[in-house]
């Protein structure tokens, strides 16, 4: 075995994709020390997205101070890829749930700092922006981001303000005349949900509770997002309410679509395109992928599906390693996965298993590599 590609997702609650890659590489090198191992740690657009891209293709991390979820000044960052023109931004770095800790309040949190990250990247010469929509604590429809880029919002008495989730209903007029010049800028949003902006499957009702919204608050946030969509449709003739993915990250999907003309794409496709995965598959002997749980949901644009579909076109076998294996996985084999292996070695609850996940992954990879080396020797 001369060339192996590693492209796993994180194992949620246990291991980052970078850690998974490192463990896999160690065991591969133990049995095939001369093998070329290409590591492509995959992130879903949330926390860790920048580090995953920089680990996969190189580049630099730029540190900058921006506004946090409550407009306080915080230390943040984004990445610039080796071409010097592509910036990778994770909105979680300025508007993520970990930043609010036990102060969750989607009525008051803002994406303003995310807009400041974009502005800084553009002023730094970047013309391509990849933005990860995941792990947010906000529900402002991206209005804060827009405000940081020069968009002005006015209430019914003509007073300018920066809307948050709880005040979107106050918007009467939006002025984009002083918005930062973004001509020639290409924005791609990593978006792994198809939720619309409003309604029972919208941003507030589906994702609001994890951000601290009770049922009454979620209803209010939903009405406010609908008002926001109505104003945008009335002023700009754009209907953002039902765009698939508009409800991602508290409506940020809608915000980047309307204000930045961003394309909403599956996160795995963005990653694989950026690292030129199809080119890397040339002469590859095997691909390892994986995620915390593989089941029927893995067919819906998840990492395993995206990796296997591309590898199949090049005739490269794929082994998927998972924390847990659910039902309804037969279709995954048809898509190009040759084998699915669970790292669970003991019948114990997740809260106990998570503490031994790294050890279990290492032991499982050792077993897989023993089988492969046995086959190679025959």
TrEMBL record:
<keyword id="KW-0418">Kinase</keyword>
<dbReference type="GO" id="GO:0008887">
    <property type="term" value="F:glycerate kinase activity"/>
</dbReference>
<protein>
    <submittedName>
        <fullName>Glycerate kinase GlxK</fullName>
        <ecNumber>2.7.1.31</ecNumber>
    </submittedName>
</protein>
<dbReference type="InterPro" id="IPR036129">
    <property type="entry name" value="Glycerate_kinase_sf"/>
</dbReference>
<comment type="similarity">
    <text>Belongs to the glycerate kinase type-1 family.</text>
</comment>
<dbReference type="GO" id="GO:0031388">
    <property type="term" value="P:organic acid phosphorylation"/>
</dbReference>
<dbReference type="InterPro" id="IPR018197">
    <property type="entry name" value="Glycerate_kinase_RE-like"/>
</dbReference>
<dbReference type="InterPro" id="IPR004381">
    <property type="entry name" value="Glycerate_kinase"/>
</dbReference>
<dbReference type="InterPro" id="IPR018193">
    <property type="entry name" value="Glyc_kinase_flavodox-like_fold"/>
</dbReference>
<keyword id="KW-0808">Transferase</keyword>
<dbReference type="Pfam" id="PF02595">
    <property type="entry name" value="Gly_kinase"/>
</dbReference>
């Amino acid at each position: 075995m001369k060339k192996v590609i590693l492209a796993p997702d994180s194992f949620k609650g246990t291991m980052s994709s970078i850690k998974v890659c490192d463990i896999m590489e160690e065991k591969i090198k133990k049995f095939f020390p001369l093998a070329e191992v290409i590591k492509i740690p995959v992130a879903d657009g949330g926390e860790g997205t920048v580090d995953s891209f920089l680990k996969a293709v190189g580049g630099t991390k730029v540190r900058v101070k921006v506004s946090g979820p409550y407009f306080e000044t915080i230390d943040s960052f984004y990445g610039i890829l080796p071409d010097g023109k592509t910036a990778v931004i994770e909105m979680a770095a300025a508007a993520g749930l970990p930043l609010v800790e036990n102060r969750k309040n989607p009525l008051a949190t803002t994406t303003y700092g995310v807009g400041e990250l974009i502005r800084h990247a553009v002023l730094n010469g970047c013309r391509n922006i990849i933005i990860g929509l995941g792990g947010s604590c906000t529900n402002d429809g991206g209005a804060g981001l827009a405000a940081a880029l020069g968009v002005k919002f006015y209430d019914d008495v003509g007073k300018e303000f920066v809307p948050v989730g709880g005040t979107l209903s106050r918007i009467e007029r939006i002025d984009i005349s002083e918005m930062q010049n973004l001509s020639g800028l290409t924005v791609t949003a990593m978006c792994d949900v198809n939720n619309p902006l409003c309604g029972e499957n919208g941003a507030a009702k589906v994702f609001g509770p994890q951000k601290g919204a009770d049922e009454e608050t979620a209803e209010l946030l939903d009405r406010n997002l609908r008002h926001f969509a109505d104003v945008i449709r009335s002023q700009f003739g754009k209907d953002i309410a039902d765009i698939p993915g508009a409800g991602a990250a508290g409506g940020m999907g809608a915000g980047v679509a309307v204000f930045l003309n961003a394309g909403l794409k599956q996160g795995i496709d963005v990653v694989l395109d950026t690292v030129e995965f199809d080119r890397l598959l040339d002469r590859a002997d095997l691909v390892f992928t994986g995620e915390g749980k593989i089941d029927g949901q893995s067919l819906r644009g998840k990492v395993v599906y995206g990796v296997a579909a591309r590898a199949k076109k090049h005739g490269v076998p794929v082994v998927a390693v998972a924390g847990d294996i659910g039902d309804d996985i037969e279709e995954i084999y048809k898509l190009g996965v040759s084998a699915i292996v669970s790292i669970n070695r003991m019948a114990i609850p997740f809260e106990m298993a998570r503490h031994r996940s790294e050890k279990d992954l290492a032991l499982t990879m050792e077993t897989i590599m023993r089988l492969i080396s046995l086959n190679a020797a025959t």
